[in-house]
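Fold sample X.
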Amino acid sequence: YENPWTIPNILSMARMGLAPVLGYLIVEENFNVALGVFVLAGITDLLDGFIARNWANQKSALGSALDPLADKILISVLYVSLTCANLIPVSLTSMIILRDVALIAAVFYVRYKTLSPPRTLSRYFNPCYATAQLKPTFISKLILVAASLAAPVFDYVDSIYLQTLWCITAFTTVTSAYSYYHYGRKTVQVINNK
């Protein structure tokens, strides 16, 4: 049982709150402000990791799940909104979203299997009962999102380099999906409650 109200957890929740704002700005084609909000979201990500690593009382199993969940929500919203703005192909966004939905479903399953009895809904959704820690693989889609978001601001929307990034991202998405499947036990570490 741990305190969920740590600074890193609050920063992760703030990043989740920035996701719909960022999506709205992109769909409305307000790319300059969207790029600024994206940088702000990146700063919250850096800060929550820095604080959790350097202050032991700020580190939590919930934070190890919240941080990647906030990243997944932010990246998913970015991909969908950038696709709506015709800056990322629909097929690539579909591939990434499907992979992330499968990963989130797996995390819910692991949570159920690792929660000690009695398994009630209130205990299942209570973040204070830590049962597993998520250790996601390092392969990220951040570079493509940043490049696509910056494309209309710096006028390189039709660049061959951006299209090359699409292909690289498709490859890393398939690779990371395989990695999550193959190294699942290393990705989710069950906490031993003695």
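Fold sample Y, listed below.
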Amino acid sequence: MEEPEPAGAAAPPPGLRSLLPPREFLCSRKGQLLLAEAVLSFIIFICYIASLAASFMMAPLLEFLLALFLFFAYASKLNEKFKGLYWPLTDFLRCVTAAIIYFAISIAAVSKYNDGASKAAGVFGFIATIVYAIDFYITFNDLVTFLKQGSSDSPEGHKSE
């Protein structure tokens, strides 16, 4: 019989469970937004494949891959390991462009195509636009906070005081 480990010792989970992101990241606002973005982008991608508007399928595929990459990058704390890239700015630009692209292709899919899959992709696209807009609003607030802290540390900020 194996003896149970003490409560303080946390062994890594065996097998495929080690690939899953930590529970605290999944419960965080950023984790939930990135997961929602990835799921919505995948659903929209599938809808566009099944529709007459198949020419729009590339945008949701790229957004799905980017959201999935950032989800696992934030979950595995790559943003803390690679300091050369300012992650919130990259995430902000991704969210702004995704919201604009989803809004544009959703309007085109709903107004131009008459099949049900195109209409469903358009409706999910409008929902994704809202999710991406919420994400870029939150990320924008983080950017503003960072820039305010950076400007108070600069020499010009000390001269004006």
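Sample Y note: Residues 154-161 have pLDDT under 50 and may be disordered.
Also: The chain has one domain: 26-149.
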